[in-house]
Amino acid sequence: MILTINCGSSSLKYRLYNADLTEVVATGLVARIGEDGAYSKHTAGDKEVFFRGPIADQKAAFDIMAENLMQSEFAVIDGPEAVTAIGHRAVHGGDVFVESTIVDGSVMEQLRACVRFAPLHNPSNIAGIEECRRRFPDVPNVVVFDTAFHQSVPPEAHVYALPYELYADHGIRRYGFHGTSCRYVSQAAADILNRPIEDLAMVVCHLGNGVTLDAVKGGRSVDTSIGFGTFCGVPMGTRSGDFDPAIIFHLVKEMGMPLDEVEALCYERSGLLGVSGVSNDMREVVMRADAGDERCALALNIFIYQIKKTIGAYAAAMDGLDALVFTAGIGENSTEIRSRICEGLGVLGVRIDERTNLLVQDGHPNISAPGASVATLVVPTDEERMIALDTVRLVTESGRMPPPIASQALVHAHDA
């Protein structure tokens, strides 16, 4: 069995696969850890268990996961020995980790050194790895980094025009995020088109509460919208996206705002929420905009305009465009947002079939209009499967696990 772990500061997501990754045996979520309203949900086959009550910390969350997987009436394995490998998501690998890696003592030290780049995320990721190493002492762990896919971004795109020493001595540069999702989706898009990924230039639009636009050429990330921190690029649910840094100096010097308040403003009170004044949920913003709310309409217009502008810039950077790919919560589910983004992109060769755009949920991922020179696709992301694929590959190559029987487990195939 292959277990994947995504451990956040207030949540734990887990998924258990069979050995060749052809079946999801169980999934679970423990949410609002350490907060009021904490709950957990565990699904195995057609059975589901839901719990609401105090969940003090991540150790308590792992206790719930272990009970659900191994001890309760919904148990699917007899004990820890049934797990042959564990894959973990880590948000930030700095410029040390350029690919997924098997965990050892040295890797843990380097992970701790990367905490300074993602102080809100990496400590929880590390805690999840440590908890698994304690509970499954003989099981290899693999860590998969959101930033690793973007290590191929060239210097002209990842070095900021600041004093060079900040980059060389302190690692201040564009790192990018959502790389695990972008890597999975870009390969899945190539599979749908039945074309080698090496021949394709595509823009992947990961549109959720967090937003990443990624230029992928030949299967490699060549530019990405999020930078050193996670509030730049395109506006997001609560994060600002790009703005003139002089505004920060003005807020501090002229308005007397403390830096921690400015930071909270950029990360927590901006984006869709900040402009609309009502919500960071795209569904509510769209509903209110349709009902005549001018601020919600403005929030939508800003969001769509910045995405369209970035798609055009990336097409220019790649000297052309073969595919435009939508993924994540908004990208996969909002017919209206996809339509409005694609409107006016005909100059790039993007044209969609509005009828097919309505049928995405019925298994029609290619929403391109007949004769369009650029394919427009909607591809569900699956970060957990990408983590599982890397885990099986690395542990098998290390000799710590026999090769899976089904060879397709090691192919980044799109799940039909």
Topology:
Layout lengths: L1 E6 L3 E7 L6 E8 L7 E6 L2 E6 L5 H13 L14 E6 L10 E2 L2 H9 L8 H14 L5 E5 L9 H4 L5 H7 L8 H15 L7 E7 L3 E7 L2 E5 L21 H8 L5 H10 L2 H6 L5 H9 L3 H24 L5 E5 H6 L1 H8 L11 H4 L17 E4 L4 H15 L19
Parallel strand pairs: 1-6, 6-8, 9-12, 12-13
Antiparallel strand pairs: 1-2, 2-3, 3-4, 4-5, 7-8, 9-10, 10-11
Helix pairs in contact: 6-15, 10-11, 11-13
Q: Can you describe this structure?
A:
With 416 residues, the protein is α/β, with parallel strands linked by helices. It folds into two domains: 176 residues, 2-Layer Sandwich (Nucleotidyltransferase, domain 5); 185 residues, 2-Layer Sandwich (Nucleotidyltransferase, domain 5). It contains 15 helices and 13 strands. The strands form two sheets. The protein has an eight-stranded mixed beta sheet, with helices on both faces. Strands 11-10-9-12-13 form a five-stranded mixed beta sheet, with helices on both faces. Helix 6 packs across helix 15. The C terminus is likely disordered.
Q: In this structure, how is the largest beta sheet organized?
A: 8 strands, mixed
- CATH second-level architecture of the largest domain: 2-Layer Sandwich
| Poorly predicted runs | 406-416
Number of helices: 15
The rounded distance between the terminal residues' Cα atoms is 22 Å
Broad shape: globular
SSE class: alpha/beta
Strand tally? 13
Task: Enter the CATH topology name of the largest domain.
Answer: Nucleotidyltransferase, domain 5
**Number of structural units classed as domains:** 2
- Helix % is 25-40%
